[in-house]
Design a protein that fits this description.
S-adenosylmethionine:tRNA ribosyltransferase-isomerase activity; isomerase; nine-stranded mixed beta sheet; QueA-like; alpha/beta
Length: about 350
């Protein structure tokens, strides 16, 4: 499909620079079949059914944004995928000043050797020493806010908490699964009381999620691979929910993409561990999920293509026009939508 079909105009003031407080006070646009309703995230229990199950991504964002020196040249690195115990793939700023074999000093006693430059311009960074890389990053890294926020304000101490979900327990993401940022213990208790269950999986979100689609046609776009895991117990639980007539509602496009990667043609979800580069566009037949909670996405992005595949392109273009006209807040720190096809 032509990528221009997924374009829309978003006024810059609609981009949220801070999350709602409290988190579950964010607005919620509900698309239930042909109906559209304006609601609040804490109203979510009333829009789901007893026996439904929400599936969350428990990945934890690491301080993956690094600034260093190669000699006198300033080098910026955004880690986006672990490739070994001490090796990370990274997008590089000022990459023309970096060569394979160069050492980059990130300060605080943290250095890495650049190697294996890929076609997309990324390098592999091999971190020196024996300390766990996670500890090194805590010393020299900072929270990797999306570029549409970082270009408007500096990262600060609030982001260390604001950009983690309440489920974050498995370190490895360089972007938050932002739909889950809206959830609080109080909301989870209300969902439990309504008979709506929850479970978790892990998908370590990569920086590739923010890369624009540069191709003119979706067939020419290639996704960056991300590592994920659904254990057998969780897969069995999801299958049992659907067998009993409940719905599996993915919280976030990352949860959805991993479930769809693990689902067979008959809809049964299998245990999964490994990389996925699934790219979902209109025409895709969903097999493992029955609905989605998600934020509002960038124009021409793979994530807007995904929600258009779930609900229909015309439906989503109209929904986004409504959200813009009624002052919904967009992107990672913005408001949410509940999509029930």
């Amino acid at each position: 499909m032509n990528v221009d079909l997924f374009d829309f105009e978003l006024p810059p003031e609609r981009i949220a620079l801070r999350p709602a407080s409290p988190r579950d006070s964010a607005r919620l646009l509900v698309l239930d079949g042909a109906e559209t309703r304006d609601a609040c995230v804490r109203d979510l229990p009333s829009y789901l059914r007893k026996g439904d199950l929400l599936i969350f991504n428990d990945t934890r964002v690491i301080p993956a944004q690094l600034d260093g020196l190669r000699g006198e040249a300033r080098i910026g690195a955004t880690l986006h995928k672990r490739e070994g115990p001490r090796r990370w793939r990274a997008f590089i700023r000022n990459a023309k000043r970096l060569r394979q074999g160069d050492s980059v000093d990130f300060g605080h006693g943290v250095t890495a050797i650049a190697s294996d430059r890929a076609e997309d311009g990324s390098f592999a960074l091999d971190f020196a020493g024996t300390e766990p890389v996670e500890l090194l990053l805590e010393r020299c890294g900072r929270m990797p806010l999306p570029p549409y926020i970082a270009s408007k304000r500096p990262t600060d101490a609030r982001d260390a908490d604001d950009y983690q979900t309440m489920f974050a327990s498995q370190p490895g993401a360089v972007a938050a699964p932002t739909a889950a940022l809206h959830f609080t213990p109080e909301l989870l208790a209300a969902l439990d009381a309504a008979g709506i269950g929850h479970a978790t999986l892990t998908l370590h979100v990569g920086a590739g999620t923010f890369l624009p689609v540069k191709a003119e046609d979706t067939d020419a776009h290639r996704m960056h691979a991300e590592w994920g895991r659904i254990d057998a117990e969780t897969a069995d639980r999801l299958n049992a929910v659907r067998a009993a007539g409940g719905r599996v509602i993915a919280v976030g496009t990352t949860s959805l993409r991993l479930i769809e990667s693990a689902a067979r043609d008959d809809g049964r979800i299998q245990a999964f561990e490994g990389d996925t580069a699934i790219f979902i566009t209109p025409g895709y037949r969903f097999r493992g999920i029955d609905g989605l909670v998600t934020n509002f996405h960038l124009p021409r992005s793979t994530l807007f293509m995904l929600v258009s595949a779930l609900m229909g392109l015309d439906r989503m273009q109209a929904a986004y026009a409504h959200a813009i006209a009624t002052d919904y807040r967009f992107y990672s720190y913005g408001d949410a939508s509940l999509l029930l096809p």
